[in-house]
Design a protein that fits this description.
Helix content: 40-55%
Largest sheet: 3 strands, antiparallel
Distance between the termini: 42 Å
Radius of gyration: 17 Å
CATH architecture: Roll
Low-confidence stretches: none
Shape: flat
Structural class: alpha+beta
Number of helices: 1
CATH class: Alpha Beta
Number of domains: 1
Strand content: 35-45%
Order of helices and strands: EEEH
Mean pLDDT: 94
């Protein structure tokens, strides 16, 4: 399943789960809830660390690509 998300509208802890409400921008800049990400609290630390590491790696790849393109255009 793929969900396009513009932002997180709410984070709630309930019944040993973290519930993250995901939203998109709708017509006239309205916010539309598109889903809820539910993470068991005992997995939250691992989930957040993996997400952070993945985003760091992606950022490094994007920087390297930008540097390569800049060098090639000179």
């Amino acid at each position: 399943m793929h969900i396009f998300v513009d932002q997180i509208s709410q984070i709630v802890f309930s019944n040993n789960n973290i519930r993250i409400t995901l939203t998109q921008r709708g017509p006239n800049e309205s916010l539309v809830d598109v889903g809820t990400l539910i993470i068991p609290v005992n997995q939250a630390n691992s989930f957040v660390n993996r997400l952070a590491n993945g985003l760091t790696q992606l950022n490094e790849q994007m920087k390297a690509q930008t540097e390569t393109e800049t060098t090639e255009n000179k």
